[in-house]
Amino acid sequence: MKEFSGKVLFLDRSDINTDEIIPAKYLTEITKEALQPYLLEDLTLNGFNNKEDIQNKTVLVTRANFGCGSSREHAPWALEVNGINVVIAESFARIFRQNMYNCGMLAIELPADKLEYLFENYSGKDTSITIDIDRNKIVVTSLDQSEEIDFQVGEFDKTLVKEGGWVGYADSNY
Questions:
Q1: Does residue 169 carry a pLDDT above 90?
Q2: How many CB atoms sit inside 10 A of residue 121's CB?
């Protein structure tokens, strides 16, 4: 099972599409490692610098409809190869969300008010998140506060995550 904790990258925008996650010109790459330097290269967001802001971040918190646009496994792969195995958003594009679980990664949906709370209270701070997948808890910690937030993940998606993705699940069950 992958690691589901670490420093948080806050991206305060809805509708971040797969072309912004990994530009289409890199889809000819045949290894995940080749995608690493290009994660969020085309994302336009005030104050965001993909070369600096992604470093040492392992959890991404964003707004609604993350991963919309073209269907491609390269988008979760680009996150994964950069050490980001958790994305927390209000909602995900259906195919992107399933690709995350198929890769053994977590796509956690939270209501808009809980996301707003996270942005208001933790964005811009040295914030870490740890996911307790068995208890369905997000543990959010910054220098001056710590708290737990409940989340829900379907049992089969949870199994995929614990098995490291679809390939791991198939290897252990077939």
A1: no
A2: 15
pLDDT of residue 39: 98
Between the alpha carbon of residue 27 and those of residues 71, 76, 158, the distances in Å are 12, 12, 28
pTM of the model: 0.96
pLDDT tens by residue, 25-75: 999 998 999 999 999 999 999 999 999 999 999 999 999 999 999 888 999
Q: What is the spatial distance between Cα 103 and Cα 85, in angstroms, rounded to a whole number?
A: 9
Question: 12: which residues sit within 8 A by CB, 6+ positions away?
Answer: 45, 62, 63, 119, 123
H-type helices in 64-137, by residue range? 74-81, 94-102, 112-122
The token duo for 155 is: 């049992």
Extract the tokens encoding 129.
């998140």
Distance of alpha carbon 155 from alpha carbon 161, whole angstroms: 10
Third-level CATH fold of 5-173: Aconitase; domain 4 (3.20.19)
